[in-house]
Here is the input.
Amino acid sequence: FALVNLFSGGALLKLSVFALGIMPYITASIILQLLAVVIPRLETLRQEGQAGQAKITQYTRYLTVGLAILQSTGIVALARSGNLFGAGVCNQPLIPNDSIFTITTMVITMTAGTAVIMWLGELITDRGIGNGMSILIFTQIVATFPANLWAVRVARGWWVFALILAIGTVAVAVGRLEALALTGAG
Here is the structure.
């Protein structure tokens, strides 16, 4: 759950509208890429060019909504049973009113949040800014990075914190130098 919470920008811990983040879309994309090897029709669609890719994108959207329903149902069931964050983390019930209407509303809301994120990612891609899904993943991780980095400082002390910052700085510098070497600049 910590990894899913990281990719949702911390939204999972709050059981928010965007608690699932982009993960159902990524999972659907991976599933369809793997199925293209097994199902000849998907492989044919992939080779048809723009029209085939549009059809695969449509299948990805449908599968994303299905996976979002499945994942949100699982998260709500875990929250209802009190096992979402592990034993002893939260002593209060996360869902005080566990009527079918409340549970269904939560599942629909989290699924709609995933659909909005999927739409935003496709909108970013269509506008030519870059790969929208990758940008959204990056922003979700960056949203929680400072808090997670500070948690390392609190738990492990200043030396480990400084070491992590130094390693990160060196990794970024090496990556930048490699990028400059590949482009021939510098």
